[in-house]
Amino acid sequence: MDQLVNLRDVGGIPTTDGGAIEPGRLLRSDNLQDLTPADVEALLDLGVTDVVDLRSDYEVEAEGPGPLSRTDVVHHQHSFFREWREGVGVDKQAEGGEAEELADERPDAVPDEALPWVDLEPSVEAENKTTGVYLSYLADRPDSVVGGLRAVADADGAALVHCAAGKDRTGTLVALALTLAGAEREAVVADYAASSERAQQILDRLLASDTYNANLRDRPLSSHLTHPETMRAFLEHVDAAYGGVEPMLNRIGWTEDDTARLRAKLRG
């Protein structure tokens, strides 16, 4: 691709029963904002019918519509940040019982600049701070986690999951999807860790965007690496606290039927 540096198909990842994830079902990538016409054609040739965009409302508005928005590809936006919008988060203008009721359901909204890598304390603490950030996605935006996974399961063709860098928010959702489909744990960890191989290219690309430049320019490359132990700790925490990914997701609205559809999608 001309303008994607962290794109990959997770097809071929081995499963615990001796099978593998089917190719052409689930792709993951960095931001789709600057696709060239050749990139768009290539993604359509790969069978992409649905895009699951995990960026915040702020990022989407700041970047504007991308080239794929001018095609028939269906876009599903599921922000992983606890920003306010209708029915989600706390409306600071609301008064009385309504605001209190919403506050019980969601943590306070983040600042208007809802960007990744900002110095916000995660709502879930963990020994590995980045693991805590990933667990916070589940605590802060269970609606988006479930919605994103369902968009993958229900896509007519290939589903492409992305955020800005294609490694943290994307890495979390893809790890959950692969685990539900029965992928081997260490293969899930290895897929997550593979983004480190493209870290410099990812950073260079985001630094060229006004949306991300000020936030990223003084951060070392080492802060953007996807260490295997981070994803391993995330999945181990889910196992210890909830008995596994599926029981954890069941607590936030995921169903057995959802799992069956996702497995059928990714396993064929």
UniProtKB/TrEMBL annotation:
Q: Which Gene3D superfamilies match?
A: Protein tyrosine phosphatase superfamily
InterPro entries to which the protein is assigned, alphabetical? Prot-tyrosine_phosphatase-like, Tyr/Ser_Pase_IphP-type, Tyr_Pase_AS, Tyr_Pase_dom
Please give the Gene Ontology molecular function terms for this protein. Answer: phosphoprotein phosphatase activity
Domain (Tyrosine specific protein phosphatases) spans 143-201
> Highest taxon of the source?
Bacteria
Which family is it part of?
Answer: Belongs to the protein-tyrosine phosphatase family.
Query: Which protein is depicted?
Result: Protein tyrosine/serine phosphatase
Q: What is the native source organism of this protein?
A: Microlunatus flavus
Supply the source organism's classification: Bacteria, Bacillati, Actinomycetota, Actinomycetes, Propionibacteriales
